[in-house]
Amino acid sequence: MHRLTLAQIARGLAAKDFSSVELTEALLTRIGALDPQLNSFITVTADQARAQAQAADARRAAGESGALLGAPIAHKDLFCTKGVRTSCASKILDNFVAPYDATVVEKLAAAGCVSLGKLNMDEFAMGSANESSHYGPVKNPWNLECVPGGSSGGSAAAVAARLIPAATGTDTGGSIRQPAALTNLTGIKPTYGRVSRWGMIAYASSLDQGGPLARSAEDCALLLGAMAGFDPKDSTCVDQPVDDYLAALNRPLAGLRIGLPREYFGAGLDPRLSDAVMACVEELKKLGATIKEIGLPNMQHAIPAYYVIAPAEASSNLSRFDGVRFGYRCENPQNLEDLYKRSRGEGFGAEVKRRIMVGTYALSAGYYDAYYLKAQKIRRLIRSDFIAAFQEVDLILGPTTPNPAWKLGEKSSDPVAAYLEDIYTITANLAGIPGLSMPAGFVDGLPVGVQLLAPYFQEGRLLNVAHQYQQATDWHQRAPEGF
Ligand code: GLN
C-alpha cells in the first residue's frame, strides 16, 4: 500500500479496496520500522492519525467522496498544529505546543487528510541540507550518507522513502524545490500570496510560501488545490479564485514556448546535470514545445540580495523568541537582560544565530541603505527580468540545483558553499513567481531535478507541463532501494 500515490489512494478508498484506517496503520508500522534510518519525523502522532482515519472512513461511509478524504500526509514542523508540539526543529521551541492550527493544516484536515505527524527540517527553515535541526540531520533515502536537501528535508525523505505519499513543505529560497530535486520528488512553490502563511512560523515573511511535496505532479495538483485560497487572517494572501489544477493537467503542450536562461547553464553547473536537463528539453520538444534561449541578466546578484533580505526579515521575526512568552527559558535567570540573553543564546543553533547577526547588522542605522535598500533594488530588477522574459516565453526551464545531493557534513563548515546551492531557486522567491521541481534522471544513483518557472498565478501551467512530462517518462516512479 505504501507504493500508492495520492491519486491511486483516492481511487482505492473510493473502490473500498482498503480503508483509511488500514492504510494509516500500514504507514505507521512502516514509519516505526524505517524512520530510524532517516530521522525524517520529529513527532509521530499515531493516536491522532488513527482518530482522523476513523473519522474519514465514517465520512466516506456517510456518502462523502473528496479525493483527499482519508489520505495520509504529514506536515513540516513549522506549521502550527493544535495540541501537538510545533518545534521548527529548534531547541527554543522544543516545548512549544501550538494553541491553534495553521490555515494550511486546517484546510487539509477539512479536505479529510490524515496527519501522521510533524517532519524534520532545518532549524527555522534556514539551510539547504537539513543538517541544522536540533533533532539531528535527515538522511537521503537514495544514499544514506547524503543529505536530502533542505530545509524541507524531512518532508522530502519521508515521501521519497514511501513512509507517506505526500507532505507539506515551505519554500523561502528553494526549500520545497531543492529537497524535491535531491530525492526524486515533485514539489511546487506557489506564487507568493497563493497559500496562506497564517500559522506558518515565519522565517522571511516576504519570501515564505507553503506548498506540497509528492511523487507526481498529479498529487501536487490534488494537494495544492486544497491548500490554496484566500485567507483573511493573512494580509498578504491574495483574494483570487483557485484554478482547477486537476483539469489543467491534461492540456496538450503543443505550441508551448519554453525559455532556457543562458545564465542557468554557465559555470558552476555539474555537466552531468546539464545533460539530464537537456534530455528533458528534448522530451518536451517531442510533446510539442518550442525552445528559445533567454536572458535573466540580474541573476548573478540574487544570492547576495537574498542573503541580506532573508536574514534581515529573520532577525526581526525571531525577536519574539525571548524566553518570556513561550518556548525555552534558561535556568535561574539573574535579571531580565540575562533571561533574554541566555534563553536565546542557549535556545538557538549556530546557523540561526549567524542569520540573526547578519540581518541585524544589515538593518542597523548607517548600513541599512548600503545593504538592505540595495538588496531590495536588486530584488526589483530580478522581478523585471522575469516579467520581460515572460513576454517572450510561457515557461522557463533549467536545473533545480547545480549539483546532486552531497555527503553529510561536506558543506556544513562552509556556509557560503551551502548558500551557493540555492542559485537557481531563490530568484523565484525574490520575484514571487511560482516554481516547480520534477524528477528528470540520475547521476551516480542520485536524482536530478528540473525546475520550471511560470508567471504569477500560473501554477496550473507548471503542473500541466510536469504531468505531461511524467506521462511520457518514468523517472518519477523510481524508488530508492531498501524503501
Ligand atoms: N537554503 C535557503 C536558506 O537557507 C532557503 C531555505 C528555505 O527556502 N527555507 O535560506
TrEMBL record:
InterPro entries named among the record's database cross-references: Amidase, Amidase_CS, Amidase_dom, AS_sf, GatA
Reactions catalysed according to its record: L-glutamyl-tRNA(Gln) + L-glutamine + ATP + H2O = L-glutaminyl-tRNA(Gln) + L-glutamate + ADP + phosphate + H(+)
Superkingdom field: Bacteria
GO cellular component, as recorded: glutamyl-tRNA(Gln) amidotransferase complex
Active site residues of this protein: K76 (charge relay system), S151 (charge relay system), S175 (acyl-ester intermediate)
Biological processes per GO annotation: translation
The EC number(s) this enzyme carries: 6.3.5.7
Top-level enzyme category: ligase
UniProt keywords, alphabetically: ATP-binding, Ligase, Nucleotide-binding, Protein biosynthesis
Function: Allows the formation of correctly charged Gln-tRNA(Gln) through the transamidation of misacylated Glu-tRNA(Gln) in organisms which lack glutaminyl-tRNA synthetase. The reaction takes place in the presence of glutamine and ATP through an activated gamma-phospho-Glu-tRNA(Gln).
Record-stated family: Belongs to the amidase family. GatA subfamily.
HAMAP family to which the protein is assigned, alphabetical: GatA
Record-given protein name: Glutamyl-tRNA(Gln) amidotransferase subunit A
Protein's organism: Azotobacter chroococcum
Name of the gene: gatA
